[in-house]
Specification:
binds NADP nicotinamide-adenine-dinucleotide phosphate, alpha/beta, 7-stranded parallel sheet, single chain, 223 residues, 16% strand, Rossmann fold
Length: 223
C-alpha cells in the first residue's frame, strides 16, 4: 500500500497535521523525525533518522503514487547562523523533496511563508522563495505550497517574539484588512487542516500556491 510521509511532525504545524491524518486513505502514515515521538493515531509509524543520511537509509516504504507533507523549518536563532538556517529551510526541504520525487511521490505539500520571494533582500523570505523554486523544479505531478503569515498556536518551545506578539496580534486581527490582510496571523491548526484537506483531494492544480489571505478565508466546506 502506498504511503503518506510527514516530515516535521514534531513541530507546531506538523503536530496538527499528524493528528488530522486519520482518513484511511493516508494509511500507512510514516512520521520521519530526528527524535522519538508517540504517533497520535494507530495507523501511524515513526522512523527516527539522521536526515543528512536520508538517501542512504533503507526505509521499507512504498512511496510510488504517495504523498509527502513537509512542514520542516527552523529559525535563525535555533539554527545559529545564516548558513545553518538556509541549510534547513531551503536545502533540507529540497533534499527531502528530491528523495520523495525519486521514489514516485505524486503529491508534495509544503509550508513556505507569506512574502516568499527568491529575489528578496531579506534572508528569510529569499530562502523560502528559493525553496519554493527548488520544489517547482522537481516537477511533481502535483505540488501544493502554503504561504501562511505568522502562526498562532501552542508550542512547547519558548519563542519570545511569538509569545509577546501572539496576544497583541490576536487583539489587532481586525486591523489586518485591505492590503494588510495578507499579514493577518493564522492558526497553525488551520494551516494543518488545509494541508490534510488538499492531500485528501484526488485532484487539483499541478502547482497550487496558497497566499496567506486565501488561507485566512478558507473554510472546510468552501473548497
Ligand atoms: N512560525 C511562524 O509564525 C511561521 C510563519 C510562516 C511560515 N512558517 C513556516 O512554516 C513551517 C512550519 O513552521 P512551524 O512553526 O510548525 O515549525 P516548527 O514548530 O519549528 O517545527 C519545525 C519542524 O522541522 C523539524 N526540523 C528542523 N530542523 C530540522 C533538521 N535539521 N532535521 C530534521 N528536522 C528538522 C523540527 O524537528 P525538531 O522538533 O526535531 O526540531 C520540527 O519538526 C516552517 O517552514 C516555518 O518557516 C512559520
Amino acid at each position: 500500500m502506498t504511503a503518506t510521509v510527514l516530515i516535521g511532525a514534531t513541530g507546531l504545524i506538523g503536530q496538527n497535521v499528524a493528528s488530522r491524518l486519520s482518513d484511511d486513505r493516508f494509511a500507512p502514515t510514516w512520521l520521519l523525525t530526528r527524535r522519538p515521538l508517540t504517533p497520535p493515531l494507530p495507523h501511524q509509524r515513526v522512523r527516527v533518522l539522521d536526515f543528512a543520511e536520508l538517501e542512504n537509509q533503507t526505509l521499507d516504504l512504498e512511496l510510488s503514487d504517495g504523498i509527502l507533507i513537509c512542514t520542516l523549518g527552523t529559525t535563525l536563532r535555533r539554527a545559529g547562523s545564516k548558513d545553518a538556517f538556509v541549510a534547513v529551510d531551503r536545502d533540507l526541504v529540497s533534499q527531502v523533496a528530491h528523495w520523495a520525487r525519486d521514489r514516485g511521490v505524486r503529491h508534495c505539500l509544503a509550508v513556505s511563508s507569506v512574502g516568499a520571494n527568491a529575489d528578496s533582500r531579506n534572508l528569510y523570505l529569499r530562502t523560502k522563495g528559493q525553496a519554493e523554486q527548488e520544489l517547482i523544479a522537481l516537477n511533481f505531478p502535483r505540488l501544493t505550497v502554503l504561504r501562511p503569515s505568522m502562526l498562532l498556536g501552542e508550542r512547547s518551545e519558548f519563542r519570545l517574539l511569538e509569545r509577546l506578539g501572539t496576544p497583541v496580534l490576536r487583539a489587532l486581527t481586525p486591523i489586518f484588512s485591505g492590503p494588510l490582510r495578507r499579514y493577518r496571523p493564522v492558526q497553525a491548526a488551520k494551516v494543518a487542516s488545509i494541508l490534510v484537506h488538499q492531500a485528501a483531494s484526488a485532484s487539483g492544480p499541478v502547482i497550487d500556491i496558497w497566499e496567506s489571505d486565501r488561507i485566512s478565508r478558507w473554510q472546510p466546506d468552501t473548497d
